[in-house]
User: Fold these one by one.
Assistant:
Number 1:
Amino acid sequence: MAEVVLQAQRIAKFFGERPVLYGLDLTLRAGQAAVIVGRNGVGKSTLIKILCGLSPPSAGRLWLFGQEPRSMAAQQFRRVGVLLHQSLLYPRLTCRENMEFYSELFAIPDAGAHARRWLERVGLQRAADELVSALSRGMEQRLGIARAMLADPDLILLDEPFAAMDADGVALVSSLVREALAREAAVIFTAHAPLEIAGVDLRMFKLESNGLTPFKDEGRRGSLRNLLRRN
Amino acid sequence: MLEGFGPILRKDLRLEVRTGESTVVLVSISVLILVVMVLAFGPAGARRAEVAAGALWTALIFAGTMGATRALLSERESGCLRGLLLSPVEPATIYAAKLSVAMIFMAQAGIAVLVVLVLFFNLDFGGALLRLLPVFLLGIVGLAALCTLLATVSGRVRAGAMLLPVMVVPLFAPALIAGSKASAAVLAGQPLGAVITWLKLLGAFDVLFVTAGYLLFEHVIFED
């Protein structure tokens, strides 16, 4: 059986006295993909921040690759790729400089060539020398996804990756997710509404105030075509 | 152990060369403080060396707090600090890189202050300034180490930049006394041997602040 990449047990998060997440369980193995669906403000972004080890849960436990995030060696974070609401890109550096910087940070050999390959992969080769602050939201999102995936991580966490994306962008993200799953990475992403990616067996969960529940309303699943129509 | 140090340092310097914001702000504020001190106390008089040393360290304290804040500012834009924390780089390495950037910013401001100091206080450009160099270097290492650690904490609270000097000055007070006493002595023409005790004290505080920052940074950098 494939390695358990992520295991969350009774995760809860409080901001002061206010509960944001409560009693959340989730297990994901290598090669599996899950989408977490929820309305605005339900805690999807908070959950992603907890699952990547950036923000500790107020209660419950989390293991990434069998270790609690705070006890993981920094080198282990090479295996985790994260896209948050903020792009985590330096607005006053160009696309190329941002990708080269992160490639160097991840100690990827020949950072320049690696950055160039990823810029081509996400269709930003023509914008390579533009400052990130000059990019459109959709282009910045593409670059943010490239940044998250540049080290071929084994666990990929994407917070609303389809937000601000045009049709080509949605197809690009879908193909990157398929490629990641093909090399046995585990992928979790969040979305406002249920959706499907062709050729991907997605486990769908609904995030509500009482926790994470498997999504049962199959009739409401939308294809990417529907997602595009909604956008 | 210091994997990632080079890329972070290079990136910060590239950003600074591109915008020049920190250099302009720090040099302007530091020189302004010095001018205010000169206007308040006058450039001449028997206590010229003491006043010049006081002016130098007042300017350095503000350059230190602002330099450390500016070194972390680029990481707070677009959540880039989270990008660093999610990379395979030890928090202590991030601290070391940010400390180096803060020291470079402070050194720039300090050199500008020294030039103005020499002109306004009619000091000797030669021996006294050379003897001031070790005092200056030991001072900025400790100050930058403390300011970088505390700027990380203050950056997480509202009006944190305003609070930073309030946190820094009491903790840095012993080193500040040592630094200003040693500076006054060498500017008055005394040899370095006469201030060796103050230099040792400054060095001891450098070790203390750098070690504390290196060990504590990972506890203050992550989110709650």
Number 2:
Amino acid sequence: MSDNGKGLSEVLSKHEADLQADWIKEQTAGSARRTGAIKEVELRDQCKEFLGLVIEALQGGGDLDVRGPRWNPVRDLLANLSRSRGLQGFTPSETASFVFSLKKPLFARIRRDLSKDGEAMAEATLAATVLLDGLGLYTTEVHQKAREEIIARQQQEMLELSTPVVTLWEGILALPMIGTLDSARTQVVMESLLQKIVDTASSIAIIDITGVPTVDTLTAQHLLKTVTAARLMGAECIISGIRPQIAQTIVHLGVDLGDVTTKASLADALAVALERTGRAVRRVRAGS
Amino acid sequence: MERIPILRMGGFLLVTIQVDMHDRLVTTLQDELTTMIAQTGAHGVLIDISSLDMVDSFIGRMIGDIAGMSRVLDAETVVVGMRPAVAITLVELGLSLAGVRTALDVEKGMGLLRAATRRRLAEADDGGVER
């Protein structure tokens, strides 16, 4: 393998400057490039640095294993580049084309330089392919990882956003649930509801599940746990916003909601809550 | 020895737990409370656990047991002021304390007990029993 690396290294160092120029042209011409998203100067710097680092890594001994410690600087550069492009909204293939677009100018140089020695040319080509493929895949991998980090962060933000506890009336809380109820979310919901019950000394909490797309046995169990915990603290729960399909599912699944009061709409639940706290709503004049 | 005081308030007994509960303390409380109910003929027991920030399955079960015993002695039990963390723990332990009445604070708990007493008196009147 070390020979392969050597041939490649020689070609790279010899043509560094014009390789870089061709490479940039290739990227700018490629339809994959997002015009304006990356500045010409920035791109030139990135290309220059990348080539420099690759040559340096190859000169060290021609080890083509891009996961090895020798390639750390190159990997760091690609990781930064991939992450920043990922944040700018590049697709994985657009990001990886940074590395892959080097193939065309590089292979042209290899062919020109080593055309007399067929074996050396094949070896150098193989080395270049192995190297660039490895680096390209690494770029994609980092891109994916950066995306996953974004998704995880958004999930966390959604979790925080989607569990508001609102006061409907003095002593009456409402918890409009939106989205699928999993264990982690139920825990957050339960804690914030119970804390709010303590803070506001509310005796009735309405859990509205209009925004919950499906209810399965697990979801029902989570709901019942929340209701039981609230009851232990001395607050009563009403479940509202049960859609017809969900009512059917609950019965088909054989879920026993016990003695929990359930209502079809939040308005009905509020009426019940007002009645239980000794209040009534009445019309004072004819509405328009 | 550490003891949890049981206060008498009219026809009700008030138990405020302000120390960490340990097993011996709970069994002593059970003994004393049942004795006290029998002696005073109280028909309402209010247990304030607002200072309790840790429970285990034993304590949880004992709270349920106390309520059961009081009911046998014809006294209604209301547990008040349970903290969120305690409530979550009990639910996760599978202890829903069915049959125990709960209220947010002492005032609301007393309201529940008074309402229960009124109901009891009304029922007694309907039955034509002299009290």
